[in-house]
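Incident log, support desk, overnight shift.

02:14 A customer reports that sequence design results differ from what the structure should imply. Their input is reproduced verbatim below. On-call engineer (initials T.W.) acknowledged and began investigating.
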């Protein structure tokens, strides 16, 4: 059977010039399965960070770029049908992504993102080579939950986590019953006296993400404004540089979820 191609050509303007980025979606059959039931919060959180920002794979992607790829993944990937994505990058080899759903022996499902990025050599290979340092991400699917493998509840000792990290773990793990613990954990943190600026910002950043998960638009706007103020008050604080990058990604995710 000939492969059916869904081709979207996207023009990106950056640094004062225009370049063409062609995104090609390929599958043996582009049937609209709408198989993935994961909440858009998790899809935008994990896949934007992991497929675009991490490893500097495609950091200049616009919201239109990201949305076109995420929509294709959510629409066409199923347990029977993997999806291949090719992003043609001027002056470089194309960035290749393969999305597939695998079933485990115990009946659970895992969404896997394979790429042609060689993490050891720091370059795009000609093809995806799963056995040779190919950058790959695995996500456990559980109803509307989607959890990166290292964020699974059995991968860490929750009793040993500092409270800001515990609140984040509750938000991102696979257990629906932990959702009800997020807000109270954050409230406990923010009541502490002499809270350092790093923990204060992390707690408020997790609170922002929690509001995003709940689709509480007015609280998202208010919380993002407050975090911008906190960062502006501490422009030279080295302990929050990584948190500022995480906040920038969260602001991009807010646009994706609109």
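02:41 Re-run completed on a clean worker. Output:
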């Amino acid at each position: 059977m000939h492969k059916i191609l869904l081709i979207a050509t996207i023009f990106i303007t950056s640094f004062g010039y225009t370049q063409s980025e062609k995104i090609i979606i390929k599958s043996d059959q582009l049937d609209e399965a709408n198989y993935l039931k994961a909440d858009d919060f998790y899809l935008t959180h994990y896949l934007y960070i992991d497929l675009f920002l991490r490893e500097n794979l495609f950091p200049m992607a616009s919201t239109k770029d990201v949305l076109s790829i995420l929509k294709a993944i959510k629409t066409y990937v199923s347990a029977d049908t993997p999806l291949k994505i090719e992003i043609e990058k001027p002056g470089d080899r194309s960035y290749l992504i393969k999305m597939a759903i695998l079933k485990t022996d115990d009946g659970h499902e895992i969404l896997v993102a394979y790429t042609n990025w060689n993490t050891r050599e720091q370059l795009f290979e000609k093809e995806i080579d799963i056995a040779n340092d190919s950058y790959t991400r695995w996500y456990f699917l559980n109803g509307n939950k989607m959890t990166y493998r290292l964020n699974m509840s059995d991968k860490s000792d929750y009793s040993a986590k500092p409270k800001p990290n515990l609140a984040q773990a509750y938000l991102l793990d696979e257990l629906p019953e932990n959702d009800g613990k997020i807000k109270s954990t954050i409230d406990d943190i923010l009541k502490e006296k002499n809270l350092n600026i790093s923990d204060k910002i992390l707690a408020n950043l997790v609170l922002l993400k929690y509001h995003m998960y709940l689709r509480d638009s007015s609280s998202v706007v208010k919380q993002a404004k407050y975090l911008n103020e906190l960062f502006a008050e501490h422009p030279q604080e080295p302990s929050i540089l990584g948190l500022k990058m995480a906040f920038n990604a969260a602001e991009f995710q807010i646009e994706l979820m609109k």
